Amino acid sequence: MTDAFSLPSGPAAVATLIATEGTSPKEAGAKMWVDASGAIVGAVTIGGCVDARVIEESARVLAEGRAMVLEMSLGDEDAWALGMTCGGSIEVLIEPVNAAAPADPIARALRLAQEEMTAGRRVVIVAPLDGRAERLVVFERGQRAGTLGEPALDAAAMAACTAYFERGRSGTSTLEQASGATRLYFEVHAPPSTLVVFGATHVAMPLVEMARVLGLRTVVVDGRERFATRERFPTADELIVGMPSEIAERLPLGAHSLVVLLSHDYKYDLPVLRAVLASEAVYVGCLGSARRGKAMLEFLADEGVPSAQLERVRIPVGLDIGARSASEIALSVLSEALAVERGRAGGAMRDRRRAASDGAA
């Protein structure tokens, strides 16, 4: 999954990592921009020989105005230097872009993707890998913009986007048409996940800091002005002061929303929980003991909240890491939230490797 870079003001070459073989520290969608002056933004790996070669080819692409797919095979030593666990190969699509030209299809597609992400929606940009600059933009709501040059190919690519929306990762696919096979790159753009914290407490402070390091958008909600302050939350994207339950009802909590309740107060948590559970928030955690959690969930059940919704509540919140301090509790909460969002159980990695090994045996 990738975010669109801010477009350069003039002509530039954009290099996009489209495929890797072997474990790589960068996913498909990683970008590097190289402008006419040689200025560089971003990277397709973590440096070294690959990025140096990409910069060299980017200058050539920009000078000649023709796209190319750069393929590089890496030996174990080169791969290790790039953070890959073993030898493999990578493919990088390098294309000329002129953001100042209104008709430039690449710049237009990236602008559309940025608009959708700003609105909290995902989009897939489909690019041909045969040197053409055409782009098909497929929106999460089912519409499309642009073209790959052939109506039949547009339709087939749009259908293929369903799988990319579902898995949330960019990659390449070859589509078979009557006119032949066409290899395409499908780039998934999505808004960052948002951590919404109800309760500007001492645990919320390190939780917001850690979330920002991980690239999450952060929102802090509290009814007390002296707690929800910039002095306490200097890196929060948004601070909202008001009645928490009313704010919970109007916030756009969707499939990329992680919600944590930290007030530890029944009169605040119950109405907030009721509103949050009516949303599509992917994670709902609540600070409190198992006994307190049981009482809260029973109360909501008596009010008619469906059991399927109540089962989403993580109380006590967080993974069992023996957390004691506020920072350790925050680490526990954030770890569980990410595990839930990514469909993982949150167990030890060695147990996962052991299960895989037993299965292979």
What would your notes on this structure say?
This protein is an alpha/beta fold. It contains eleven helices and 16 strands. The strands form three sheets. It has a six-stranded parallel sheet with strand order 13-12-11-14-15-16, sandwiched between helices. Strands 3-2-1-5-4 form a five-stranded antiparallel sheet. Helix 5 packs across helix 10 and helix 6 packs parallel to helix 7. The longest helix has 17 residues. About 3% of the residues have low confidence.
What is the gist of this entry?
By secondary structure, this protein is α/β, with parallel strands linked by helices. 35% of the residues lie in helices and 26% in strands.
Key attributes of the depicted protein:
361 residues; alpha/beta; six-stranded parallel beta sheet; five-stranded antiparallel beta sheet; 11 helices; 16 strands; elongated
Summarize the topology:
Blueprint: E1 11-21, E2 31-35, E3 40-42, H1 49-64, E4 68-74, H2 76-81, E5 88-98, H3 105-118, E6 123-128, E7 135-139, E8 144-147, H4 151-167, E9 171-177, E10 180-189, E11 194-198, H5 204-213, E12 217-222, E13 238-241, H6 244-250, E14 257-261, H7 266-277, E15 283-286, H8 290-302, H9 307-310, E16 313-314, H10 326-341, H11 349-360
Parallel strand pairs: 11-12, 11-14, 12-13, 14-15, 15-16
Antiparallel strand pairs: 1-2, 1-5, 2-3, 4-5, 6-7, 6-10, 7-8, 9-10
Helix pairs in contact: 5-10, 6-7
